[in-house]
Specification:
The structure is a single chain. By secondary structure, the chain is α/β, with parallel strands linked by helices. The protein has 2 domains: 230 residues, 3-Layer(aba) Sandwich (Aspartate Aminotransferase, domain 2), CATH 3.40.640; 124 residues, Alpha-Beta Complex (Aspartate Aminotransferase, domain 1). It contains 12 helices and 14 strands. The protein has a 7-stranded mixed β-sheet, sandwiched between helices. It has a 4-stranded antiparallel β-sheet with strand order 10-12-14-13. Helix 2 packs across helix 8, helix 3 packs parallel to helix 4 and helix 3 packs across helix 7. The longest helix is centred in the C-terminal third of the chain and has 18 residues. The radius of gyration is 21 Å and the shape is globular.
Length: 371
């Protein structure tokens, strides 16, 4: 008996258009951190996000570090972050010599709880990083008001929410500064890549300076500050320009996949779909479900094992940041994060999945739940 067709949890959508742009960049000779595709990508991405500036980077993690470093975050400072996020959010804070203070998320959105942020603000707090978990924008109106009153920088980690909107406003424009990731499993990709968007011209200039080893833009090979090599290549930008050409198509296809799962699995009592608040158009990153009732710490992993045997790759939700050795904090009180982390699962989500493939995955989920 042959093994069932396997469905990977993620796969990039790459066509002849991406190949053509990348080949053009190669043939032009502009293969490193200068070139026309870089300029085009930054201009187009800024317009799409509705901001004045987009600063491309080598990946999403360094985008976060660059934004914090440009804002002057350093040793002795504290930055409030959600406990439920990918480790890069907290790592970027640590790179600055600052401390990530983890707070809980809301069960209604899975995003950082503004009330918990308010309670965590102290004399050393310099910034708040909100994360658009699984494509759902955080409560930026509440967070903006809070940060404005306390003089704090508001950073949006939109690694997972390209294409999302909040009250009609796109991610990239909802905070003082926003970071994106273009890793291979993201909505649009360059394999590795990132970007920072802002309408703060001074902050954008500072990020450009630091991104390029700290070299004075008006005096070659003079370095007035300690900088980093956080630049994107023209090859990566060429790939992203093609992805931007196809972005609406890619998002629509991924939306159909996620909606297909949610509609066809709506009658499964063991599964709870991702909540979406009024006014939110989530980014079509990953189909996300909770398995079992609140407090269930075993059913998610059992389902994942059963699906793996049936050829369906899944992802668990992130391990809470305070449970990780580099950021261990036994005093952190984040019960919602703990529960979501234990029960959350992602199903295969990418633009190449058609209706038939989604139906097959659904059938295998039903069979796995019946085990």
């Amino acid at each position: 008996m042959s093994a069932p067709e396997r469905f990977p949890v993620a796969r990039p959508s790459i066509t002849e258009l991406e190949e053509r742009y990348v080949v053009d960049a190669i043939r032009s000779g502009w293969i490193s951190s200068h070139g026309p595709y870089l300029r085009e990508f930054e201009e187009r991405f800024a317009r799409r996000c509705g901001v004045d500036a987009a600063v491309s980077t080598g990946n999403g993690t360094v985008a976060l570090h660059l934004a914090l470093a440009a804002a002057g975050i350093g040793p002795g400072d504290e930055v409030i972050v959600p406990a439920l996020t990918y480790v890069a959010t907290a790592n970027a804070v640590a790179y600055c010599g600052a401390r990530a203070v983890c707070v809980d998320v809301l069960p209604q959105s899975w995003c950082v709880d503004p009330a918990a942020v308010r309670a965590a603000i102290g004399p050393r707090t310099r910034a708040v990083i909100a994360v658009d978990l699984y494509g759902h924008p955080a409560d930026y109106p509440a967070l903006r008001d809070l940060c404005h009153r306390h003089g704090l920088l508001l950073v949006a980690d939109a690694a997972e929410s390209f294409g999302a909107t909040l009250d009609g406003h796109p991610t990239g424009s909802l905070a003082d500064v926003t970071t994106f990731s273009f890793f291979g499993n993201k909505v649009i990709t360059s394999g590795e890549g990132g970007c920072v968007t802002t309408s703060d011209d001074a902050l954008a200039d500072r990020m450009r300076l630091l991104r390029n080893q700290g070299m004075d833009p008006h005096r070659r090979y003079y370095f007035p500050v300690l900088g980093y090599n956080y630049r994107m290549t023209n090859l990566s930008a060429a790939l992203l320009c093609a992805q931007l050409d196809r972005a609406d198509e890619i998002i629509a296809r991924r939306d159909r996949v996620i909606t297909g799962y949610e509609e066809q699995l709506a009658d499964e009592p063991a599964l709870t779909r991702q909540p979406v608040l009024p006014g939110v158009r989530r980014g079509a990153w990953m189909a996300a479900f909770l398995v079992g009732a609140e407090g269930d710490a075993t059913s998610r992993d059992a389902l994942a094992r059963a699906l793996d045997r049936r050829g369906v790759e899944t992802r668990p939700f992130f391990v809470p940041i305070p449970e990780l050795p580099a950021h261990h904090d036994p005093a952190a009180d984040c019960p919602v994060t703990t529960d979501l982390s234990r029960r959350g699962i992602n199903l295969p989500t990418h633009a190449e999945l058609g209706e038939a493939e989604v139906k097959t995955v659904v059938e295998r989920v039903r069979a796995a739940l019946a085990d």
